[in-house]
Design brief:
The complex is a heterodimer of chains A (415) and B (148). Chain A is α/β, with parallel strands linked by helices and 415 residues long. Chain A is built from 14 helices and 17 strands. Chain B has 148 residues and is mainly alpha-helical. Chain B has a single domain, classed as Sufe protein. Chain: A. The chains are: A alpha/beta (415), B mainly alpha (148).
């Protein structure tokens, strides 16, 4: 049965927003698309697509290098985007915003530079039990290299970090803590303020994986007092191949560079190279100029809608989806943290998530099945994977109704 | 029935189903009806790689014919396996290795299944044919009196 959602009038004009996204107007198998795989990647508004095209049709040229007019325009646009993003996350300076390829790239950068600059044999790197592989493997590689040890903050069956155990894990050997703000597999919002406060009380820096946070809630790096924060453009309505590493200036100044090449140097001789200042020190080679500019456009688009409004709307979506999914016989949520955002993971009886996903797909509903690049989470819950529906600013209550109807139909076929 | 006849029958069955949900319904039913593999054969050796879901395939030779039994933890996968088993099981290794499996294309399976699913299906078929080749080689070498 379809419920009449008990919702307040959103401050967000969702119908209008939907019209800004060309792909949302498409059909799959002749059925209007219901796109609920936003945690994997979001769709892009027309302004972002236009920004990409305009860059190549009007100002394409290399940045920071040319004396000519176009190069100046491209550099201005590229640096303008850095300022926009710095404003969006409230960084002290644009120089603290490093363009990367994405979350994975940002974590690899920090793991590598921090590893070479700081980590000694016997040191400890702390991650959590709910990390994406991107926030596990780079640290494992670095630990192996440096003779350090990776330790894990455990979680309970609800999918919440055990904060007592976290405190107990803190000691003088712990040299960095890397945790996800929001779990992509469970939707859990972690108590990052508390994690940072406890870590800083012991002078341990914290890296936050904000890949699933930045698009759902206001992020203020100064208020958080976080040392490093990473996210991907493509989950934030921007293009693929571009992302951001925020780092406190004192850390970025202190750490050795990650990659060497053009742009990241001041002077090069065969005897010695002097590195460039921030942010260029960490941006070797020609960057993804069009991507960086279009990411700035995506951020402006989101700012215009208002991230607080988006957050409010998505909270209503989460609440409504949780309530509607409970109607499905045999459905159990994987991850029942008190604070969740963006994504809902579930299973139905012993139906294989892959089967359910395939039958939803044939009804035009795009969700994700599998381990969501978080195999340790699946191991902990003793499941092969989950079905995950994830939301964005353009998701509607109707999408959720269609999801529930689709699940009912699929489940009745599979039972 | 020959391998060709079974294939033609399947193609005809599928042609009566109008949309893909009906076809899935049919595949799922096949999956539910698939005779279960003996638990003792669900060994890592019998596990086929290349599937998102787990698939076990066991082969036995009875009266000169190969008999396949299989299982999966996903029911659609089981249904697809069942199609393959129905077509290829109970035939001689020679018939199996020489079979032209045109029904997959004709039913439209490859174009409608997700790429991971159809890759899984193909690795399953490859495995079945490989078993048949192996048996054929064995029996040939036995005929020739050579030891394997
Ligand atoms: C929590 C989390 N961390 C890291 C990543 C990796 O992001 P990317 O593949 O864009 O580098 C993802 C994306 O799935 C994620 O959800």
């Amino acid at each position: 049965m379809q419920h009449v959602p008990d919702i307040t009038v959103p401050a967000l004009d969702v119908e209008k927003i939907r019209r800004d996204f060309p792909l949302l107007q498409e059909k799959v198998y002749g059925i209007p698309l219901v796109y609920l795989d936003n945690a994997a990647t979001t769709q892009k508004p027309q302004v972002v697509l236009d920004a990409l095209e305009q860059y190549y049709t009007t100002i394409n040229s290399n940045v920071h290098r040319g004396v000519h007019h176009l190069s100046q325009l491209a550099t201005d646009a590229y640096e303008g985007s850095r300022k926009t993003i710095a404003g969006f996350i409230n960084a002290r300076k644009p120089e603290e915003v490093i363009f990367t390829k994405g979350t994975t790239d940002g974590i690899n950068l920090v793991a590598n530079s921090y590893g070479r600059g700081v980590i000694k044999p016997g040191d400890i790197v702390l991650v959590s039990a709910m990390e994406h592989h991107s926030n596990i493997v780079p640290w494992q590689i670095m630990c192996e290299d440096r003779g350090a040890e990776l330790q894990v903050i455990p979680m309970n069956e609800q999918g919440e970090l055990l904060m007592d155990q976290f405190s107990a894990l803190l000691n003088d050997r712990v040299k960095i803590i890397a945790v996800t703000w929001v779990s992509n597999a469970l939707g859990t919002v972690n108590p990052v303020h508390e994690i940072i406060a406890q870590a800083h009380a012991r002078n341990i820096p914290v890296l936050l994986d904000a890949a699933q946070a930045i698009q759902h809630m206001p992020v203020d790096v100064q208020e958080l007092d976080v040392d490093f924060l990473v996210f991907s453009g493509h989950k934030l309505y921007g293009p693929t191949g571009i992302g951001v590493l925020y780092g406190k200036e004192e850390w970025l100044d202190k750490l050795p560079p990650y990659q060497g090449g053009g742009d990241m140097i001041k002077t090069v001789t065969f005897a010695k190279t002097i590195y460039n200042v921030l942010p260029y020190k960490f941006e070797a080679g020609t960057p993804d100029i069009s991507g960086a500019i279009a990411l700035g456009t995506a951020v402006e688009y989101l700012q215009k809608a208002g991230i607080e409004n988006v957050q409010q709307w998505e909270e209503q979506l989460m609440e409504y989806a949780t309530q509607r999914l409970q109607e499905v016989q045999g459905l159990r949520f994987i991850g029942q943290a008190k604070k969740k955002t963006g994504a809902i993971s579930f299973l139905i009886d012993d139906i294989h998530p892959y089967d359910l996903g395939e039958l939803l797909d044939k009804q035009g509903i795009a969700i994700r099945t599998g381990h969501h690049c978080a195999e340790p989470v699946m191991t902990e819950f003793c499941i092969p994977g989950t079905v995950r529906a994830s939301f964005a600013m353009y998701t509607t209550m109707e999408d959720i109704d269609k999801l529930v109807a689709g699940i009912q139909k699929a489940a009745s076929m599979l039972r | 029935m020959t391998i060709k006849e079974t294939q033609d029958e399947l193609i005809s069955d599928f042609s009566f189903m109008e949309n893909w949900m009906d076809k899935y319904e049919y595949i799922i039913q096949l999956g539910k009806d698939l005779p279960l593999i003996d638990e003792k054969y669900k060994t890592p050796d019998n596990l086929i790689k290349g599937c998102q879901s787990q698939v076990w395939l066991h082969t036995e030779m009875t009266g000169g014919k190969l008999v396949f039994t299989a299982d999966s933890d996903a029911v659609i996968t089981k249904g697809l396996i069942s199609l393959m088993v129905n077509v290829l099981s109970n035939h001689t290794p020679k018939e199996i290795t020489e079979a032209d499996l045109y029904f997959i294309e004709a039913i439209g399976l490859t174009s409608h299944l997700s790429p991971t699913r159809s890759n899984g299906l193909l690795s399953m078929l490859k495995q079945m044919k490989m078993y048949a080749f192996a048996y054929q080689a064995t029996s040939q070498s036995q005929k020739n009196g050579t030891e394997l």
